[in-house]
Amino acid sequence: MDSPPNALVTGASSGIGRATAIELARRGFRVFAAARREDALAELAESMPGIVAVAMDVSDPESVDRAWAKIQADTGGSGVDVLVNNAGFALAGPIETLAAGRLERQFGTNVFGMLSLIRTVLPAMRARGTGRIVNISSVVGRVTFPGMGGYGATKYAVEAISDALRLEVAPFGIDVVLIEPSFVATAIGASADALEVVPSPADDAYRELIARGRDYMTAQVAKGISADRVATAIADAATRRNPRPRYLVPGSAMALVAVLTALPDRLADRVKLRAIGAR
């Protein structure tokens, strides 16, 4: 009997990552669910057959190396068939108010952590002549709103890296796919990294924008799509024979992206400000 395909999902302790690990396990994958929260991973592994908990901090190269050594030992050195780069957090606020250390931590997780995993899994995928890398971006990787510049910058980077990588690894039989969720009803903005309060001297100057932006985000997340819906799109992209390079989730978000990217910049700016109720 053939052994099941292997998948590695980062940020699997909650939200989209957890839902993706469960969905891939349901589809017959052996899933290495990776995250920092070992208690949540243990609960996940106990609740669903086919899931293996792997402690990993994607922003710590030594942690990634330890986790990969465990996975390699578990798979007999063959690595994984699918990598889902989902680990990340959303840091919100006007650019001037964001402390440098917080932005560096966001890039360390959302971008450099992703790159670390890609470089780690690729040698085994190339040797096998097949593999799939699914990178989780965002609609704000295509269209940026005020107060989302820091987070959006990391997702623009994910888009650029994925577009280049897709061409680089195609000759080795490896696919690279982008998933671009719109607002999702998860706690991505409620992680310890995202919620750390670092007062800025500029906070008062942006008080109205911060308040309106917070209200807008709260309302959008409250009516956002479910993590399960995104997980289904990720699992489809991971298993489809000829996946598209990118998937907006839900598909209806395509209209928003098309309009805002087609409008002249000044007009698009006014539309975005009006959307969040800012002047």
Helices and strands, with pairings:
Blueprint: E1 6-10, H1 15-26, E2 30-35, H2 38-47, E3 51-55, H3 61-74, E4 82-85, H4 100-128, E5 131-136, H5 149-169, E6 174-181, H6 192-195, H7 207-222, H8 227-239, E7 246-249, H9 253-262, H10 265-276
Parallel strand pairs: 1-2, 1-4, 2-3, 4-5, 5-6, 6-7
Helix pairs in contact: 1-8, 3-4, 4-5
Explained architecture:
The chain has 279 residues and is of the alpha/beta class. It has one domain (6-276): Rossmann fold. The chain is 51% helix and 14% strand. The protein has a seven-stranded parallel sheet, with helices on both faces. Helix 1 (15-26) packs across helix 8 (227-239) and helix 4 (100-128) runs parallel beside helix 5 (149-169). It starts with 5 loop residues before the first strand and ends with a helix.
CATH architecture: 3-Layer(aba) Sandwich
Number of strands: 7
CATH class: Alpha Beta
Share of helix, binned: 40-55%
What number is the mean pLDDT? 91
Cα-atom radius of gyration: 19 Å
Shape: globular
The number of helical elements comes to 10
- What is the structural class? alpha/beta
Unreliable spans are none
H-E order: EHEHEHEHEHEHHHEHH
CATH superfamily: NAD(P)-binding Rossmann-like Domain
